[in-house]
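User: Can you help me understand a structure? I only have the sequence.
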Amino acid sequence: MTGLVLEGGGMRGMFTMGIVDLLCEQRVKVDGIVGVSAGACFGCNYKSHQPGRALRYNARFMGDPRYMSVRGLLRTGNLFDAEFCYHTVPREFDVFDTATFEQDPTEFHLVCTDAVTGEAVYKQLTHVDYDALEWIRATSSMPLVSQPIPLEGRLLLDGGMVDSIPLRHAQELGFDRNIVILTQPRGFRKKPSRIVPLFRLLMRKYPKVAEVMERRHEMYNAQLDYLYSQEASGKVLLIFPDEPLCISRIEKKPAELHRVYQLGRTKGKECLEQIQTFIATK
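Assistant: Let's start by predicting it. Here is the structure, written out as tokens:
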């Protein structure tokens, strides 16, 4: 089976969606998606057959204080308004096609971080209700600017802290050939975070979060090494930007979102034949 693995990166995810939307438009089918953070939050539109939606609602609302604001962060502990972003927008302003999502046979999996234990928590979404949207919120909830989300007896945050590129999980699920879309260029290596002391201070109720953030660069770079080894064996098709995307994780300017999205579409067109051949090869 063929999987599509999507890492996060905030608004760097517009690059990912430029590629994913092209695949959707070209009716390129995979058997499953495993996404984390923005990769899951935006990538679910592949299964709902809604190319362009992730770009459209982010370009419309990123500058709207109902969607994201420092005032909201100070008042609620959430930079992104939980109800407006993850429930009002997909239910009222840019409606998510829940029926198509549920009918499409593509498996959809995401990963979160347990804020108490520091462990990865994986979830398959087969339908879209309030709790499913909360899982999508949880995988995208960056520490320091988000409150942990209670789901199924756990308190959850952004999955990118513990499994930034969930290729191994995709393989464990049975996807033996995987297309992996990264949002950093080849050769990128993550450096230690300079704000670990801030995590220790502000996340003192959740010390495991500070611990995983202190080791995150080691985890991420080890995943890159494994990714390249799987690419060399022919089990992975790796797609990445040619240069750094130079966009903020919380970029508000529609022009910048469109710029990075178009970079993704251009890369998708360059790789389309290669992707189709990879999927057809058993």
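Now, to help you interpret it: The CA atoms of residues 181 and 239 lie 5 Å apart. The first strand starts at residue 2 and ends at 6. Let me know which part you'd like to focus on.
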